[in-house]
Design a protein that fits this description.
With 462 residues, the protein is of the alpha+beta class. The chain folds into five domains: 111 residues; 71 residues; 71 residues; 71 residues, no CATH class; 75 residues. The protein has nine helices and 16 strands. The strands form four sheets. It has a four-stranded antiparallel sheet with strand order 1-2-3-4, covered by helices on one side. Helix 1 runs antiparallel to helix 2, helix 3 packs antiparallel against helix 4 and helix 4 packs antiparallel against helix 5. The longest helix has 26 residues. It is rod-shaped, with a radius of gyration of 49 Å. About 1% of the residues have low confidence.
Length: 462
């Protein structure tokens, strides 16, 4: 029988306690506290970023600490790998984070599991406690209650009541001093998309009631549908506008930034003529965004405006001069008599015999009804080859001893125009029995008001 000595008994080794500092886990415990404080003062999107960053960073720190400790604890049991621990914290951080610290106590001291449990709850509880202890903050410009309130405000305004859709809500800035949020949204109208600025501010902070109002409301443009509808009603209530076949051509002439007034113009198509109508868009109640449209002081159209050019052409072609007019152009304004409210203009009538300046007037026919007229201010002299001049000239020539024997008088044409004397100079050929004479004659006024002219023979040569 073999005897066993004391040296044959070798005691089993117990796992030694690893040395692991609190650097990584200390940072992991501190980060949720910092994140919880930040969550009390941030908006939703920033809060989401802080939360995600906290989960990822703390999971990495705890996994690195677990890797340093190893997988075999003080009792000799094999534990989960650091990668499993990392995946668990990313998937369910609020549960796995405290469990990771209870697991850590099996490897080294002290046991920080209960501390980790409190730390894990802190980011969730802190924002609610802060909102309960501090006064209620203004809702953001993108919050449901603000979106609903601003839509109601916009649709109650006359400028954007016809909006088909309102979206694109965003916050521009927050003035912490005045406790006012400045936001913007988009109102989709039939005429285009218009940005609408608004403000969110306290109505009664103690009662935690806020209000939403439009900020720096803008007048609708002169060609917007809202302005067109109101303007058409106004025009058709006037004596002249009631006969209009259509009203179109709305355009903006200018915007007075100082007075905050828009000046526009449209065309009223009457049975007899097209009349330009000027109007004004201005605020009636800016706070409630109520605007009004009114007719502006009516002015005579300019001498070179399209409507005057058209009317003048009709007047000239209906005059004695009109039969020989080939074209009319060169319209210009000579002067405006503000006291008499009359515009003095001039155009050029191109005749077969030459170019004739035609003076004309633009004046009111009925200002209250917006009716004006165009008339010739001075009847132009008939052309040297016009039928009435040829007829008078033949009588003058045949009343002379030599002209009485003339076989024919032909070749009438204009050779010049004496602007100073206001006379036309013409020439014709008088065929006698033995020779042909070239006769120079003039056409001038005898009584311009009565449109009576005179023709006299100036010279004759063979």
């Amino acid at each position: 029988m073999t005897e066993l000595s004391d040296s044959d008994f070798i005691p089993a080794e117990t796992p030694s306690q690893p040395r692991a500092g609190l650097g990584l886990v200390g940072a992991a415990l501190l980060l949720p506290v910092v994140a919880g404080v930040l969550l009390c003062f941030t908006t939703s999107w920033v809060a989401l970023g802080i939360s995600v960053a906290m989960v990822v960073v703390t999971a990495i720190l705890v996994a690195l600490d677990a890797s340093r400790l190893g997988r075999v604890d003080l009792q000799g049991r094999e534990r989960e790998s650091p990668f499993v621990l990392l995946a668990g914290m990313v998937a369910m951080w609020i549960v796995i984070f405290p469990l990771a610290f209870f697991r850590r106590s099996a490897f080294t001291k002290p046991n920080l599991g209960f501390v980790a449990l409190l730390v894990a709850v802190f980011p969730v509880v802190a924002p609610f406690v802060a909102s309960w202890l501090t006064p209620l903050g203004l809702p953001s410009c993108t919050s449901p209650e603000v979106v609903q309130a601003i839509e109601t405000t916009i649709r109650n305004s006359t400028a954007f009541a016809a909006a088909t859709k309102i979206d694109g809500h965003r916050e521009l800035r927050f003035d912490s001093g005045t406790q006012v949020r400045y936001g913007e949204c988009l109102a989709h109208l039939d005429t285009g998309t218009v940005p609408v600025a608004f403000q969110v501010e306290w109505q009664d902070r103690n009662a935690r009631r806020f209000q939403v109002r439009l900020a720096d409301a803008q007048l609708p443009p002169c060609d917007s549908r809202a302005v067109q509808q109101i303007l058409e009603q106004i025009i058709r209530q006037t004596p002249v506008g009631g006969t209009a076949r259509s009203i179109d051509g709305h355009r903006e002439l200018k915007y007075d930034h100082v007075a905050d007034v828009r000046h526009g113009e449209c065309i009223a198509h009457l049975p007899s003529q097209d009349v330009p109508v000027r109007f004004v868009v201005e605020w009636q109640n800016r706070i409630k965004t109520h605007f009004q449209v009114r007719l502006a002081e009516i002015e005579l159209p300019a001498c070179d405006s399209q409507q005057i050019v058209q009317l003048l052409a009709q007047v000239i072609r209906n005059s004695k001069l009109g039969a020989s007019v080939r074209s009319i152009d060169g319209h210009r304004e000579l002067k405006y008599d503000a006291e008499a409210e009359v515009r003095h203009g001039e155009c050029i009538a191109h005749l077969e015999s030459g170019d004739v300046p035609v003076p004309f007037l633009v004046e009111w026919q009925d200002r209250k009804k917006g009716l004006y007229q165009v008339r010739l201010s001075g009847q132009p002299l008939p052309a040297s080859d016009s039928p009435e001049v040829v007829r008078v000239l033949e009588q003058v020539i045949r009343n002379t001893p030599l002209g009485a024997t003339a076989k024919s008088i032909t070749g009438h044409h204009e050779v010049g125009y004496d602007e100073e004397a206001n006379e036309r100079i013409g020439e014709c050929l008088v065929e006698l029995e033995d020779r042909i004479l070239k006769v120079t004659y003039s056409v001038g006024w005898q009584d311009q008001k009565k449109s009576l002219f005179k023709v006299r023979v100036m010279d004759s040569t063979e």
